[in-house]
């Protein structure tokens, strides 16, 4: 690690600790081993409640769920993960290189947490990860909530890709902040979380697993009760296209378009519809 890398890591750790201090309910941290490394997990809610595993979007960390977790933790034992290979407090020894690795990593993480079948929710890229796992291991998912999942039912909008190119080409804190501010169009964003995401943009991370839209036949056959939340004011993808496509390929799924929220202001704002789905 170079001196610059050390400074970036220190800045990220400081931002992460500050955001975690604002987690709205009592929380504990755990680390769970797998073939791919150690996964950092934030745990909250009653130990007697059914388990709910939360996956964040790319670069967002488990802290992205802070704005939604108060309601979720009132009805579930929550396990919010920092995905292996991404910004966060997890440590990777082997990168996730394919969809099978995503399934294997999540399965071993659930095993390490002592969990069998769980409710599973994912936002953005985490939605794709959650859907991938449910398709591969349906017996381990009781209910599936996909919060504005990307590359699962539709592609990104051209306008979003245009604004995201600078972040993808050379990630910096300033570019990440600019993308989020543009996409949310002045709507409130958790400043503590945005500081984490911005600092995380400057950390060296593994390339994300290349995503492919699942086979429609597999989606149609999925019997796990599924909720898909679309961002009504989102700029990352067209919520109308998301709703139409889900209706076509997953007719048994429930689609909820939440008005006034965008891709990057979620998952806060989706907690009520997700909580009702879990009841």
UniProtKB/TrEMBL annotation:
Pfam families: Abhydrolase_6 (PF12697)
Listed InterPro entries: AB_hydrolase_1 (IPR000073), AB_hydrolase_fold (IPR029058), AB_hydrolase_sf (IPR050266)
Protein name: Alpha/beta fold hydrolase
The keyword Hydrolase appears for this protein: yes
Hydrolase in keyword set: yes
Keywords carried by this UniProt record: Hydrolase
Superkingdom of the source species: Bacteria
AB hydrolase-1 domain location: 52-267
Single GO term (MF): hydrolase activity
